Amino acid sequence: MGSSSPSPISTIFVYGSLLADDVVRVLLGRVPPSSPAILPHFQRFSIKGRVYPAIVPGEDKKVTGKVLLGITPPELHILDEFEDVEYERASVNVFLKDGTEKLEAYTYVWENKTDPDLYGEWDFEEWKLLHMADFLKMTRVFIEEMEFPDSKTRVAMYESYYKGTNNNPSHP
Questions:
Q1: Catalytic residue selected from 83, 88, 121, 147
Q2: 10-49 CB burial, b ≥16 within 10 A, e <16
Q3: Confidence band (pLDDT; 50, 70, 90) for 99?
Q4: pTM to 2 decimal places
């Protein structure tokens, strides 16, 4: 028996822009296997001034999304960089939507649990129609620049992309 163990493979619960296979493909260079899932005891919100959502703990609430399976350590690093400082990676229990299985997974929880900019419910179908094309462009730039040591963080890139153009997201 060798002393080296295989690298840990992760399961990630996604609930926002990463529900779009095109965004995942740009970030990871592939679309991992996935399954519809539910995260209990959390609530998804829209964020004023942002096109992507946040989740925070919420009693008697649940978030629908999906789990990405077989995420490698280098892919997890890319996702951590993409989620940046606005989110913290947390270990959670999710249920496959068909109810057959409970899984431990990572997800990205909004860092500021009492953020006054959180409001309403974020809608994936609306996001696809209104924001996905621009979000994909920003994501491509992010992944290209990630190779450089002085690359912008995803938050800085988002802010310069959306505030530096006429692509300002609508918000209340």
A1: 83
A2: bbbbbbbbbbbeebbebbbeeebebbebbbeebbbbbbee
A3: confident
A4: 0.86
